[in-house]
Every structure is written in structure tokens, then in C-alpha cells.
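README, section 4: Worked example with a bound small molecule

Sections 1 through 3 covered apo chains. Here we extend the same pipeline to holo records, where the ligand is supplied as SMILES alongside the sequence. The molecule in this example is flavin-adenine dinucleotide. Nothing else about the input changes; the structure line simply encodes the ligand pose together with the chain.
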Amino acid sequence: MRQRHPATASSEHLVIVGNGMAGHRLVEALLARPERPARITVIGAETAPAYNRILLSPLLAGEMEREALTLRDAEWYAKQGIELVLGERVETIERSARRLTTDAGRELDYDRLVLVTGSHPARPPVLGLELPGVHVFRDLHDADALARAAEQGSNAVVIGGGLLGLEAAEGLRKRGMQVSLLQRDDRLMNRQLDLTAARLLENELRGRGLDIHTDAQLERLEADANGLVCAAHLAGGTRLAADCVVVAIGIVPHTALARTAGLEVNRGVVVDEWLTTSDPAIHALGECCEHRGNLYGLVEPIWRQVEVVAERLCRPNAEGVPGYVEKPTATKLKVSGVSLYAFGPTEAEPGGHEVLSYRDPQQGDYRRLLLRDGRLEGAVLYGDTASGPWYFEQALAGRDLTACRPALLLGAADAQLLLDDALNESPQRPAKEAA
Ligand SMILES: Cc1cc2nc3c(=O)[nH]c(=O)nc-3n(C[C@H](O)[C@H](O)[C@H](O)COP(=O)(O)OP(=O)(O)OC[C@H]3O[C@@H](n4cnc5c(N)ncnc54)[C@H](O)[C@@H]3O)c2cc1C
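The generated complex, written as C-alpha cells:
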């Protein structure tokens, strides 16, 4: 039986559609607030309770056990008095009646609704993509299917040289497969890395045995006599044997539910700074939403969205509560033995950016900083990435780093010393000596 929590202030029924990373984080954020809605129902299409999707990569690589991914189990939800419905997909939302229906025929009334339906992998329009043996890498089932494919086959082709493609490729390689990776661009992780860092990464991965094809144009996938995928054909005539193909070229927000409910949808479900959709009773956040033209693929901004929505749901009439504001995000790659940290633009704007770079081929270290008027706008660190978060903090704060410019490439500790010295010498500072 569902327990009611004595500290709840609102008698509203809140329904959360999606028990993924954002949906679960929202539950935790609501539970931390005394004014949370009295009744909360969570409906998730996956059969497993919320898990850490980020850790699917180390799971695939065999570096982690399945159990370590679970965020909270169904028992925990029950103890919190939250109704958790798993393995059911919400199919329709009747907004005028504030009622939704799942694919199992369950009907549920709501007062307020949150859509956290995430996204699904994008699929390129390539002949043969529907063949058995072609996979995506999004959820636990995909990770299981890939692990099984690695047991049975020996050759894999991964389409996509971004974060996800690289993590999938390394995972399969660690499971003993011969892996070819296809990247359409001239470099790996082209959105995050400049050419030098991308080449360092490429050399490291090639050294481990990955067969990397940049500037690769996939033309079609070939089926064997049993109708299973057996090869990938590239423009130029290259044929790569493939018992298993993984498509990792990007993500597309899950918007079908919102669209059929008549909500405003562009590439994602359109929301304002309160993550409210075109219907004031419905919020959307995470990878399914679109805010000021932006879509999301990393959890850092989503965590900030969660706080805004939790606050809004618990204190809808509170004034002065800040809405969601876009901020830059830093990227890390989860391939063990490769340390990489990047944020901001990868290419210097001619006449706009000053470029500082440092390279130690022996240690395998590389740093490249993009500055505009003494302020950091972008950075790529490969090898020793310890100072990455410090650089990112300086960029977010828009701090003028002119005073520590000579030590900037040496890393956080040296640069901060110079900054502190400059600050102590500054006449504007309330000098302790003068007091
Ligand atoms: C392998 C992998 C590695 C990643 N690594 C990183 C990383 O290192 N760093 C990082 O920041 N991000 C990473 N990400 C991205 C991160 O996992 C996502 O940004 C995050 O999970 C988004 O959360 P979400 O709740 O919006 O979507 P999801 O976590 O996808 O959750 C959405 C949930 O909603 C369910 N759903 C959809 N439609 C319905 C419906 N109609 N009814 C009911 N339920 C529905 C889905 O089944 C799903 O369970 C990675 C992703 C993957 C796949």
C-alpha cells in the first residue's frame, strides 16, 4: 500500500513520464523539499528502475557490474510512497481532461505532468540499416545485446566518432572484437577537439588496435545468405567485415507523445525558462526538451533543469526563484587510460581569439587555450587534465586572466598564484596593511 508522507504540503497528483536519469533525479529533488506534491506517480517504458545510463560504457567494456548502475530500486520508490509503473509507455495525453493512457491500457488522471522521455539514437538513411546485427547503444538491452554479439562475432563496425561511438568501440574492443570505427568528419570528436588533440586520441586508439577511418562515407551495409549484416561498404570501395554494426551518430528527442498531445514541438518539446511547455500544467526537461533552440545530450545542464522544475512544482507561486539559464558545458571521455577535457569552441576565430598551446610529446600532454581579451573561452586538454575544471571555472566566471598569462599553460596552481599576487597588489583591494 502507498504510504503518505506527513510533511507534504500539496494535495496535487504529479505524474512523471520517464524513469531515466532526469526523471529519477527529479524524484530525489522533490523528496528533498517539504512542499512536494502529496501524490507522485512515475511511469517508465523500460522494465528496470532508473539506472545510471552514463555507466553503460564501462558496463559494455566489462569494467563494471550491472548492479552498480541502479540508482534506486523499486522497493525504495515504494518506501517513499511513490507509485512506480515500469514497462509501460504513455501513449496518449488528453490535456482537456488531464488524463493519460499507457500502452497497457492504464488510465491515470494528473494535476501536473512532467515529460522526461529522453531521446532515441539517430539513424542515417543508409541501405541495410534495418538488418539483424545492426545495433544502437542507448539502454541496458542494447548493452546486453552488444555483449552477446561480442561473444558470437569477431568483427564490429561502429558508425560515429563522437563520445558515444568511441565508448562503444572501445567497449567492443575490450570484449575481444576487431573494431572499425567510421567518422564522417576529418577528426574524432570534431565538436569538442581541435585537430592536434583529435590526432593524439586517434593515435592512442589505433595503438590499442582500433581501425579508425576518418572522412569516411558509409554507402551501404551488406547482408549474408542468412540475411544478417556481414559488411559495411564505404565510398571509394573499402569493404569492412562486420558481424555487428553499432550506429552512434547522435540522438533525436522523444517528442511523439508531446506532439500528439498538441504541445508545441520543434526539434524537442519547446519549453520556457521554467521548463514549462505550451501547456502550463505540463513541464518537460532533459533530452526531450528544447530551450531557446538548444537540445541536450549531457547531464550537467539537465541537473540544473531538475532543480528549476522541482522548485516550480513545490512552490509554484514563489517569487524571485531563478529560472533555467544556459551555461557552457565541459566534456570528458570515458575511455580508461585516455584523459581528455574540453569546453568551448574548437576553432580560433581569426582576429578574435588568442591561442596559447603547449605540447609535451614524451609525456603525451597537450593543452590549447582560446582567449578573447584575456578571458578564457575554450580549452582542450589531453593527457594531464587535472587543471581542466579550474580553466572551466575561470571561463564560466569570465575572469580576466591577463595577470596570470605567463603561467596559464602551466596549470591551475601556478596560474592561481599569479592571480592571487595580482589581487593582493591591486590598489582597489582593501589592503590589510592600510588598516
Ligand atoms: C552509453 C551512454 C553514455 C553516456 N555518457 C555520458 C557522459 O559521460 N556524460 C554525460 O553527461 N552524459 C552521458 N550520456 C548521456 C546521458 O545519459 C543523458 O543525457 C541522460 O540520460 C538524459 O536523461 P533523460 O532522463 O533526459 O533521458 P533518459 O535517461 O534516456 O530517460 C528517458 C526515459 O524515458 C523513457 N520513456 C520514453 N518515452 C516514454 C513514454 N512515452 N512513456 C514512458 N517512458 C518513456 C525511456 O524509456 C527512458 O527510460 C550517455 C548516454 C549513453 C547512452
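What to look for in the output: The domain at 10-120+252-314 is CATH 3.50.50.60 (FAD/NAD(P)-binding domain). The first strand starts at residue 10 and ends at 17.

Section 5 describes how to batch many such records.
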